[in-house]
Design goal:
The structure is a homodimer of 343-residue chains. The first copy, chain A, has helices spanning 12-21, 69-85, 106-123, 175-192, 204-211, 217-225, 240-251, 266-274, 279-285, 301-305, and strands spanning 31-33, 40-44, 47-57, 93-100, 126-134, 140-149, 166-169, 232-235, 254-258, 292-296, 311-317, 323-326, 332-334. With 343 residues, the first copy, chain A, is α+β, with helices and mostly antiparallel strands.
Chain lengths: 343, 343
């Protein structure tokens, strides 16, 4: 091994993946899309599988102080299904691997799997495998989601956005992030004085968006029903800025977003202001909303107008024009990727 | 959550998986085989994917004191490919997810991925995705392997063994376990006196079987070439006893194994005796050999006779006769599953 020691922070998650997977050789004709989208695409002979995987680590992605195990199992599955929907494919199977320390009981695992099963039942996917093992400390959940499809024509990548396309989202943004801030605040209050019982009843929406998010199945169903194939798509896991940037980069285009059109739930707005945060910033940089960010050709505009829950938030422009936010005050800001950096 | 607290040790890994996945509903017709074999089988329309996943946890499955990162990356991929070969399918793609604490550098990750790539190149599989994230402590690697096939007829399950079938293994057993004992002993010696440099040169075979195992690709290739489809198969990851038990249970049969026919490498024998262990016990209970354990119909006996590296070790009998070992001394012992219990 080289003597050099580069801290992983210097590269960040995306830089790290780029760095490490550089120079990978491809051996199989059946590998149609590898690393670099929400999911990989493999297959041949008119049958294809879209595959995505994610790892959730205790103390990094979730905090056991405020995450019910059932919600955690549910969320671990949902965030992976979201990646499959982001390819415009319905998920069909999942594998779930769990490593747990011996501080967890069989009953705790049952709770976790109750959440896994609930997500499987709700989204019509089958749990087909996994691994259960021990860890010296904490819990790690690794989920792989699979979506089988016989039509490659309808698979949507990040790379298909064209100048003039309309930028849309399938629902409101920023709530999951605001929910996390609320949970963290209440945790600190509780740690300082454990006689306090947090009352979340006024903020059920943002709490649920954080602890028990849903994948945008309704949007997928609508696309199918209306025979609409977005030109590009991904799910919003890192925040609108960062994820819009991914689409722009993959498609070789720019985009402008209208600040005033970014959908925010009233509860997110109210609570963001209570935390002295700009609600739009929460939407741009928050992440974990698992709504779909997608672009459609101008001729599909009418179909989007009737899409329940969807919002038109901007337009695809030429690459040289970059990624810009038109503020309600009439200014133009350049947007930077500000996704999560877990290292 | 219920007030009851059952320790996961009470159930063990297999009991736990049975317990937790009981009552799972199936939603998709494309799920052809779910939990309970080396890999799941999904697909439709003449194209199928065989899928398996495994998680390796630092401090449980590997010890950084004697595991070179490149070997670790290689092994993490290989143990998953082994599960695909165990279904009589060639693996085609893998995803690799890694959680690491910040004590690992970019250079360390590069070493690990160099091993991943080496395994991908050697076995002709493509790295199509994964996740790289941080962990509060230690390293966790989760790999999912996929094998695409257009022929369901040649997929081999654990459940097809029939009375009268011949029991075979693709290579010698027990070496990986003996190698682990050696590494553990040298580690203890080093911890007691760090001026000692361990000399493994006389025991390269067992060390390599532990640190850099290979999947039984040659056996898969031979089956294909000779148009031989085993009646049942699995890979030996938990030890011959435990894995033979899995085949017997899944097939509703018994088996007898001939002690004198269980293949042992000279180095394994010599070293086992040095450790005051019975070499056959190492083969029966050791695990991690990643050879294939398979059964063939009596009419295929000739094909097996010419199979390089393969050994005939017993016969499938009726269920009521159980799983027995005929010792070289002429005694008959009942075998019990003694696989690894990580909890």
């Amino acid at each position: 091994m080289s003597e050099k020691r580069t801290d992983v922070n210097e590269l960040g998650e995306f830089g790290l993946i780029d760095h490490i997977t550089r120079g990978n050789k491809q051996h199989q004709k059946s590998t149609l899309r590898g690393i670099g989208d929400d999911a990989a695409v493999v297959g041949q002979g008119g049958q294809y599988a879209v595959i995505s995987t994610d790892m959730l680590v205790e103390g990094i992605h979730f905090d056991m102080m405020y995450t019910p195990l059932k919600h955690l199992g549910y969320k671990a599955v949902v965030v992976n299904l979201s990646d499959i929907y982001a390819m415009n494919v319905a998920p069909t199977q999942v594998t779930v691997s769990i490593a747990i320390s011996n501080r967890y009981s069989v009953e705790a695992l049952e709770e976790l799997y109750a959440g896994v099963k609930k997500a499987c039942d709700f989204y019509n996917v089958d749990l087909i495998g996994g691994d259960t093992t021990s860890s010296p400390k904490g819990m790690i959940i690794s989920v792989t989601a699979i979506g089988l499809t016989d039509s490659l024509d309808k698979v949507v990548y990040r790379s298909g956005a064209k100048v003039g396309d309309i930028v849309c989202v399938s629902g409101d943004l920023g709530a999951a992030y605001v929910g996390l801030q609320l949970l963290e605040r209440e945790k600190q209050l509780y740690l300082n004085d454990n006689t306090i019982t947090p009352d979340f009843s006024s903020y059920q929406y943002v709490i649920e968006r954080q602890l028990k998010p849903e994948a945008a199945k309704a949007a997928y169903d609508y696309f199918k029903r209306s025979d609409l194939v977005p030109s590009s798509m991904m799910d919003i896991s890192d925040g609108l800025s960062s994820d819009m940037m991914h689409i722009c980069k993959a498609s070789g285009v720019g985009a402008y977003l209208e600040e005033g059109k970014i959908p925010l739930h009233p509860e997110s707005k109210e609570l963001a202001l209570e935390f002295n945060m700009d609600p739009v910033t929460c939407a741009l940089s928050g992440g974990e909303d698992y709504e779909l960010l997608f672009t459609v050709a101008p001729e599909d505009l009418d179909k989007i107008r009737f899409m329940p829950g969807a919002y038109i938030i901007g337009e695809i422009v030429e690459r040289k024009d970059g990624l810009k936010l038109h503020t309600t005050g009439g200014n133009i800001h350049e947007l930077k990727a500000q996704g999560w950096n877990h290292f």
